[in-house]
Specification:
This protein is of the alpha/beta class. It is built from 18 helices and 14 strands. It has 2 domains: 207 residues, P-loop containing nucleotide triphosphate hydrolases (Rossmann fold); 156 residues, P-loop containing nucleotide triphosphate hydrolases (Rossmann fold). Bound molecules: adenosine monophosphate.
Amino acid sequence: MKGRPPVPPALLKTPRHATVWRILPCTGPSKKSADAPSICEIRGLPEKRRRRRKSTSATDTPAVEAAGASGFASLGLSAATLEALGRAGYEQPTPIQQGLIPLAISGVDVLGQAQTGTGKTASFVIPILERLDPRQETQSPMQAICLVPTRELAVQVTGEFEKLSHGRKVSTIALYGGKPIRNQITKLKRKPEVAVGTPGRVLDHIGRGTLDLSGVRIVVLDEADRMLDIGFRPDIEKILRRCPSERQTLLLSATVPPPVERLARRYMKDPETLNFSPKDISVETIDQYYFTVDNDRKFPLLLKLMEREQPQQSIIFCRTKRRTDRIARQLGEHVKNVSGMHGDLAQNVRDRVMTRFREGKIAVLVATDVVGRGIDVSGISHIINFDIPEFCDDYVHRVGRTGRMGREGVAYTLVTPEEGPELTRIEMRINRLLERVELDGFQATSTAPKVPLVAPGADAAKADDAKADGESAGEAEAVKKRPPPPGRRVRRHRRAL
Ligand code: AMP
């Protein structure tokens, strides 16, 4: 591939032996490793679990015993939590839960690295519920706050709190933008013990005086690598300054690059580090391929690929919001049940799209990286990176949306001939070579050599948007070449997705 530096020899052997602990369905052989229990023994597909629980109730064993007898009880959890875990069908703790829950209950700070889909959320939800003080009757009853990067994740994490606090007098509030703030203010007056929020909305409440964090004893930063990048960091710092310094801080992330670890330690006291991410960080049940394709051949290739693959459910990732809208619109003319998703859509639209996607009513979601993080939808069979991601870690997060619950997944990345270096960076990050594939009879690249105008990436996507929006080729190229206005720093700002 043109412009692509040679791959270091170390990459040539893929460490397929590395086991990634995933939540597996009960059907088919277990992918269990020697030291990790298979989730097959822990959690089945819904109908299978129901069957098993039915037989459990036939022997009159209460849910609390189901959870207790098989693992969670050994973590010293309360009867209320064991009961809620039993109801949720969580019978055995996952490795991250086994490692993190006792540490977090002991009150120390923890930096935990684990993939999503491994029970990461419950690993911080359970200790928070265990550590809540029912007698905290101060002016500021808010005892824990979890900061997450996206609204969708706020909804998901709040759901986990609600599920696992079943039967207790604990209330959790979700604080995120795009929803009327007045409703949240009314709920805050009822003094919930836990808040799950996105940094912007949390700050908004602090500014209005409707959120008092002075009684907070536990702070969680979920998806910490994203939370500590340049876009969010100032907001996070402002929020942390509002929390007591004598607090417990838990940081969780699928990827913890060294700069993030250094930063994270600034906000924590002697943290314990837990790493459950194997070196081969991209999931082993996911087949990963790439196409070399010219920018203007990407859409026809996408159509052909969709026709060939007939995905059960898929996410097509684009780099810009305009491109997301355009591809969703164009694809919708050929394929059924397509929807777009990005950060500029009204919150009620985003919520509706995510609900319909979870229910399987939307088959194809064309999205920016706003859905690349943490979203847990088990039916996604295909990830298509219509645009190669700008950051290697985003590749890991995008691809991690498939292959969930131990299912097979496949990821295709469309790479233009100029994007070789970016592909190589991804391969180095995941320590695995992607296999190049072609579609029979489809000409993906022109044979004439192309002269790259500028480094590809977000700019190329923007230029392509400009072209599609009716600008002349010259104008579109000008977008590619346009330097940033004088005095304005080009910030690697990933907030607006
Ligand atoms: P997460 O990694 O937090 O996104 O969790 C992935 C999925 O696993 C979610 O649907 C959880 O409800 C589920 N889950 C978490 N912990 C367990 C457990 N111990 N047993 C069974 N399912 C679990």
